[in-house]
Write a structure and sequence with these properties.
mainly beta; about 120 residues; 4-stranded antiparallel β-sheet; single chain
Length: about 120
């Protein structure tokens, strides 16, 4: 089991920046990939960015070039730094941890709200 706790959300003006943090606990040795997803009202949850234990990153086109995902030295934390925020970035941001066993198992945090005002 993996538990995830997000922090760092809030209200930001358009063009601003913020950093989201996620701390994992439990069976962290089994985590392969960590990432961030978001869900806006009335929309499906979508990928924002992921990073593997080897440091390979993947970004959604919508945040490419203005976001950076990174993992802490202890590999049990993941950060998302976002610049040039837009109102369309407003969403509930979820931390994800993927564990590779015989199958992939996904764990989710409860989410942290990011609201970008125009």
């Amino acid at each position: 089991q993996v538990q995830l706790v997000e922090s760092g959300g809030g209200l930001v003006q358009s063009g601003g920046s913020l950093r989201l943090s996620c701390a994992a606990s439990g069976s962290i040795f089994s985590i392969n990939t960590m990432g961030w997803y978001r869900q806006a009202p009335g929309k499906q949850r979508e990928l924002v960015a992921t990073i593997t234990s080897g440091g390979i990153t993947n970004y959604a086109d919508s945040v490419m070039g203005r976001s950076t995902i990174s993992r802490g030295d202890a590999q049990n934390t993941v950060y998302l730094h976002m610049n040039s925020l837009k109102p369309e970035d407003t969403a509930l941001y979820y931390c994800n941890a993927r564990v590779a066993l015989k199958i992939y198992v996904d764990y989710w945090g409860r989410g942290t709200q990011v609201t970008v005002s125009s």
